[in-house]
Structure formats: C-alpha cells, structure tokens
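hey m, so remember when u said the tokens were messed up on ur end? i reran from scratch. heres the input so u can diff it against urs
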Amino acid sequence: MKKSIIIAAFSLSVFSAGAQQKSKLNLEGAVADTVVNKVYLQKFHNKMFSTVDSAVVTNGKFKFSSAVVLPELYGLSVDTTRIPLYVFLDQGKISVNLSPVKGYSRSAVKGSAPQDLFETYKNTRDLEISKFITDHPASIVSAYVLYRNWSYRLSPEDITKNIGLLDKSLANNTYVLELKKLVEVLDGLAVGKKAPDFSGTDPSGKTIKFSDNLKGYTLLDFWASWCGPCRKENPNVVAAYQKYKDKGFSVFGVSLDKNKESWVQGINDDHLNWPQVSELVYWKSEIAKLYGVRAIPGNYLIDSKGVIVARNLRGEQLQEKLKELLDK
C-alpha cells in the first residue's frame, strides 16, 4: 500500500463509551513559541475535531479540569481552524508543552501512558499490526490504530482477526464497534457482489443517480480536491479514460470536498470530464460510508449490471485491468 494514501474516516455514527468513563481531567500546560489567549480542547470524531472546552492562557500557562471520557484521543490547539496536537488523555496528572510550530511537532506530553505508546507506534518502522495488538491488547491505542491506520489496507477477515486479538475490556469501545460495522459493509462489497445504488448532487445542483450512469465498465472514484494523493492519481484516471472511453469505460466521481468552489476548481484543473457528485460534507459523506471508504483515493470498478469487478485499482493496475477486460 502506498504511504501517500490518506487515511480516510468511516462514520462514527454511534458513540458507546464502553469501558471508557467520564473523569475529571488533571491537565496543565504551557504554550511555547507563540502568544495566544486561549487553548482549545477538542474531541476526535470521524476524522475531525470538535471543541469541547477552552482554557484561558495566563502568563503562558493553561489548565483543564473538564469531565471527559477517558482514556480517549483528543486534540489540543491554539487555532481551531487548523489540525491540533493529537494527544491521548488518561486519568492522572498530565503536562503538555504546546508548540504550534511545524504542526505541533515540537510539543511534548508527559504523564499519559497511552500517549507514550502512541508515540512509540508512530516511531516504529515496519510495524506489524497483529504483533502490536498482541503486545498491547488492552490499550485504546491498539483499537485506535487498527481503526484509523490499518483497516483500509486489511481484508474483512484480517480486520476480524485483529479485533479478536484485543482484550475483552475494549469490546464496547467506539473504534471496535465501528470496525465491526465496517466488516459487515465490506463483506457486502466483495468482488462479484452488487454495488449499492445512490444519488448525488452534481456541480450544477442537479441530482443524478449512479445506476443511470452504468455502461460497460464504470470506475466509481472517491477523491477530494484537498487530497494530495488524489490529485496525483487523477492523471492516471484521465489517461485510462481517454484510452478506453470509446471501448466502454467510464468514470463516476464522488468527492469528499466541503467547499464547492474548491471542488469545481479541482474538476476543471484536473480535466475530470465525467459525472461528479458531492455532498460537500467532508468525511461525513453517506456515499463513502455506503462503500466502506476508509482511504482516498479509493475506487470500485463496476460492470454494466452493477456487479463489482475490482477494487482500488491505481496507476498501471487500472490500465492493466481495462486491457484485460476491453482489449479483446
């Protein structure tokens, strides 16, 4: 799997704290490398963060004593419009040196065992997820990284196998529950299964139905204008389209954009001359959820009868598959 693929989110539609309980935070910190008035505590949900509390910065220091679910992943930020510092908070005294420089890379967290493990995970090369879970079966970090960083590259069978390695104390954890839902969705999207139908809104505001656009072989392409790897892959899709469009190949784009102008600009700049729809709701896309999309770029190749032929064909793989199907 290419490292450049952006992990996408599968909707966290149901929140169940399970073994996680609300506790009073004991979090103190200092802001470095900048002068700000407030620090924001944000809750991770569906690839996004929402503010749950804020603290006034006095003489460069701040403190949180909010009652929140622990242990869990949160964000600390001095600017809610930008990606925060990812931090696993737990019970006990935690201190943070918060520096927004270089994407919070200069920040430091002390007193959180899950955060220490998360840092170890991020700094481990050639990590094998099953071994990581086996070594840390009861940690929320294991459930999180399986959900966030690995589920998009694993088969439904492998996801289920890895869930089985987690401690029973995590059975009702949000990430585990969502992984189980994802397995159910992906089982119904295997090669040979019928692709679910849907309708979406195109740039002109017109509602179009996916099944009305099936002809020959259609690539259902999930992307977004803000997604760097998607923009790098688009020329490959365009080349395949130009080569095989007269032989029965078409493309149907679904964007995870949230800004219409950026979406339309991306379509025009990358010459995506095929039907496009977007709910303009970022990772909250119901269409992406319907197809179990955990990463973009992502795609399904579907025949004229609506049957799935292949999944996640990129670069030369797409051209090779089309050659096999259409160069006869």
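this time it looks ok to me. The CA atoms of residues 215 and 304 lie 5 Å apart. if urs says something different then somethings off w ur setup not the seq
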